[in-house]
Every structure is written in structure tokens, then in C-alpha cells.
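Homework help thread (please don't just give me the answer)

Our assignment gives two proteins as sequence + C-alpha cell strings and asks us to describe the second one. The first is just a warm-up. Here they are:
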Amino acid sequence: MQLTFLGTGGGLPSPSRGVSALAVQIGRDILLFDCGEGTQRQFMLSSLSFMKVSNVFITHFHGDHFLGLPGLMQSMNFSGREDDLHVYGPEGTVETVSTVATLGAFRPLYDIYADEMADGDVVDLGFCSVRAIAADHTVPALSFIIEEPERRGRFNAHRARELGVPEGPLFARLQAGETITVRGVEIDPSEVLGPPRPGRRIVYSGDTRPSDALLDASRGAEVLVHEATMDSSLEEGALEYGHSTARAAAEMARAAGVGQLILTHISTRYDSVEMLEAEAREVFPNTIVAHDLMSLPVTHRDNQR
């Protein structure tokens, strides 16, 4: 699982930051969360291909979160896309995508499907699920929780040997969850596997004021990607416009016990992010401020040190 921040600015692009777009790569699939203007070009500057985007999740319909859809869809078309594209978002998604998909003379050669999500709705993609949480913004908005299925428990090689299982293919079959037979005795995987372990979980806040619902959904997550539009000296203005400060995001990360906090949606008022990063790290040390094209892997909590 890999996160690539295609755009990390809030409101409008700046010379150093595009606007909101986060690519989550899981295996060969890429999920795109928000699609600010210019996202398809950001893909071209990254190591990822926009042609591998299977699903797009839009948090809300402020321009810096969705105006890249027309360009992305048309670039996919010009590049010969044939695979379906699914777009999910809050109330208004079906109408918005329908409008976007018919702008100008654009006639897609592939099928585009739009679905609206509400608080608690889940899209099960098999290799992961995406759950929507109502965000606290100035328009209907969502946060998203990306979660992998449970993993099998740890394999106890010592116990397998005690049961007479020779190392090699039979070990592999037990690890894969198969029942095997050794010298006429059936051995069930439960005899050598520990309890199931949770898959990795990423939380993407979108634009939101601090939220108890998001706090609950974030508990124990590997990564919380949270907006930090302003610093704490501007907290009143942040709340008025439906946003969070860097300190508030850090307080959320600490209370939720997440593995790592990544701040994004940075206002154009900040030429440097040192202030934002410093105030967040005072509360939650494992914090970084994302920059455009930053890419990092997401490791399981039980593998983190």
C-alpha cells in the first residue's frame, strides 16, 4: 500500500502546491481521493499512471476538490481507456458527474458510473473497503476510511513441526489456510495460526472541523491524513470556514492513537510549513506535512517500530 500526494494545497493552486488529490495504490489498483484541477498533470509528474485509477472518491464539491475531474476523464479518453470508471461522493455526485462527463464535445469511450454515499455507507472493492463518514464542513462533505480485509494470524512454525509437518510446501498450504494431511492425520490451519490480524487502515479527512465521528473512525489507524488549513492562531477563522488547524489535527491523532499523522490542504498564506509542522509535533511527534508528489508506503502497525 502506497500513498502519493498529487496535490496538497487548499483553496487554489500555488507555485509550489497543486490542490487536493491523494492516490492510494493497493496492489495494481489506484484509488483517487479528491481530484483538484490539474490532477492528471500531477499524475504525469509522479511514478503513477492515471489509467490505473479504478475508483474516484470525492469528499465534497468545492472546486479545489473536484474540478480536475473533466481533465482527468478526457485525458483517460485520449489515452484509449476502455475500463469502467467509478466515481463516489456526497449528495450531488450523480448530477455533477453527469455534467462533467458531457462538457463540450466530450464523448467518453468508456463507461462512467456515479454513486452517492452517506454517513456509514461502505464500498467493498474486495481488496479493500472504503467507508464514508459525515464531515463537519460548510457544505455536504465526507471523510473516508480505507481498510484492508483481515489477515490470517501469524504462522507458528514450531507448533507445525511438533505436529510432524515437514518444512516446505505443506507449511505454505497451512499458511494459506488449507487443511492438510500428514501420515493420515488431518491438521487444521487453526492449530498453527494465531488469531486474525487487522488489515491496514488509512483515514482521509477531507475538509472538516474537528469531529468526534472522525476521531472514533480513526482509532488505531496506521495513517491519518488530515487537513491543516491554518495554524492555531487562526483557529476562529478555520472553524468559521469549516476547517481545522494543525494543532487540532494533532490532537485528533493523539486521541485516536494513530501510527502517523500527515497534514495536507495547506493554505496559500504559508510559504513555509515549519510553523504548522512544529505546532502539530508539539502534540503528536510523528507528524509530517505533505508536499506535492510525496510518496510513502503504509506498513502494518505490528511491523512498525
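The one we have to describe:
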Amino acid sequence: MLELHYTQTDIELQERRKRLKSQFSMPLLMSVTAAAMILFGLSMLYSTTSGGESGGRIFFIKQSVWILIGGLAAVTIYFVGYRKLSKLSIVWLVLSAAGLAVALFFPEVNGARRWIRFSGISIQPSEVSKIALLLYLADYLPRRQRFINTFEGILPAFAWAGLIAGLICLGKDLGNTLLLGFTVMLVLFVAGLRLRWFFIPLASLPVLVYSIMSYDTVRWARMTSFMNPEATEKTSGYQLWNSLLALGSGGWQGLGFTKSRMKAMYLPEAHTDFILSIVGEELGFISIVLIILGYALITFCGVWISMFSRERSGMLLGIGITSLIACQAIINLGVVCGALPTKGMPAPLISYGGSNMLSCLCGLALILSIDRETRSGQG
């Protein structure tokens, strides 16, 4: 009997080693792909802003500094581990909620109150709050697994998600509100929440749509302009129309690096939300396909690593962060090509923006820490 037990255990260990060995390339592939996309984003940022007085140097330097800060934060997160950080998730949630509340008292920028500004530095607390909420859900849901489909069990998760999403929505950041809502529902579904509970958040969508139609007609016109951008090319669809012109003029191979015509005061926010339009114009449709492939590889690696986690907390956190990055990429790609309503949503790892870059790097570090702790037998 003892010999049989030893043999079965040995077989299980060998099978696990084989699975982990097959998984070896996933963290490396994710890291290399993310690094390549960051470097590509830096080069395109320089090209997109090269027509200005500073020749693109200021934006390039600022983004490089944020990448350095994000890289240091990512290394710290990787070695600290997602489990220790998840245990402090309430602290991160309270701090991020406070940051979102403080941002409401700062002056509007492009009709929204998303940023905290001091000493020339802008921070978007909604980017940090998304990671904090996913850390909380990854810690809370496995501990309350038996009661997840009871009102008492799911109420704290709904309450925190509603608070964070509500504060983001008050800042008039509809894109991040919907993105966070979808990601939270996906994590809850994977955790085992029954479909009847999703009626509560879904029922709020008609109210949200009616509120925008009635009380924010400018935003509603901008959101619906994608259905007929040519008819609104001079008004609410101006940005989208010029994005389509940029993509169309690039063709398959593009006009050449730094040769964009639309970046010269024609396409607003070209270095942030619409940087992929300039990529398509300068480097062609082939470059867009390669970017889509890069996002697909990061998504595949993230899901793979998450499914190998020995703990449900690691699996839920990995799935949440992966879906957050993947959905953000899908929304940005859909917006620049006119397939989705025009909303401010940067391209992950590519667009200019320190807060989003920091959030993406920290999220990827958490996924890699799931893999590290899985290999060490801790997670």
C-alpha cells in the first residue's frame, strides 16, 4: 500500500513538472511581447509628436520616465507576490476610492474629471482603482465561495464594485466605467456567480443611456457619430473621420515612418487614444495586424498562466487583469476604425499616458507573479 501511494504521488509530481515545463515559455513570451510593444509605442510616440516645437522629445522623455517608474513597480510586485498584495486589497481599495473622490474636485479636462494634477504631474486614479478592485475580488471571492450566491455573500463585492464604478462615472469617464463593469462581471461569472445576479448591474444600463441622452447631449452625439461619421465630419465625428482618413491613406505598407500627414493638427489626441491611426497611416495595415497579434499573444499567455494557478485567487486575478487589458485593446481598436462609439480609451502599452502604462505594467507583473508562485508551490 505504501509503495502504491509513493508511485501515485511520484506520477502526479512528474505530470505536474511536465505541465510546468510546457508552461515555461508563457511568461517569457508575455514579457518579450510586452517589451516589444512598449518600445514600438515609444518610437511611434516620437513619430506622432515629431511635428511639434519640441520635436517629440518632451513626450518621449515623459513616457520613458513613466515606463521606468512602472518597470520598478512591476519588479517590486513580481517579487512581493500577488498573495501578499491581495491580503492588503482593502487598503488599496480605500486609497483608490479616495483618489477618485479627490479627482472630482479638480478642474475638468475635455469635459471630464479624471485627473489629479500637482507640480506638473497628472495621475489618473481610475487606472489604479481597477487593479485594486481586482485584487480585492481575487482575495474575497475564494474565501466566500460557499456563500457567493447568497445576498450576504455577494453584497460586499457588489458594494465595492459599485462604489469604484460610480466614482469613475461621476468623473464622466464612461469608457472606463463600462470596461470595469464588464471585467468585474466576467470575474464573478468565472468565480461561480449565477446568471440571475447579473440582472442588477445590467438593469442600470438603460438608466445610464437615458441619462446621457437627456442630460449630456454633446457626449451622446459624439458616441453615436460612429454610425455615420461622414455626416458629422465637421462636428461630433471630426476625430473619427480624420482617424478613418489616416487609416485609409496608409494602405498596406503605409506612407513611411514620421511621414504622417494627419498628425499635423488634423487628428486631435493623435498621441494618446488615436495613436493606432497614425500607426496605420505611417506603417500600413500590416503593422495593425502585428499589433493585434501582440495583444492576442499577451491575452493567450495571461489566460494560460491563470488556468495553471493552484489557487482560485490566482486564477481569478489573472483572468481579471488579462480581460482588462484585452478589452481595452479591443475597444481602442474598435474606436479608431469606427466599429465602436468614440470613447477615450488608450491602446495598452502603446499610447501616451503615464497612469495607464503604470497600470498595465503592474497588471502584467501580477500575472507573472502568479506563475512564479505556482512554480514555487506557493500559489
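TA reply:
I won't write it for you, but here's a hint about the kind of observation we're looking for: The chain has one domain: 28-373.
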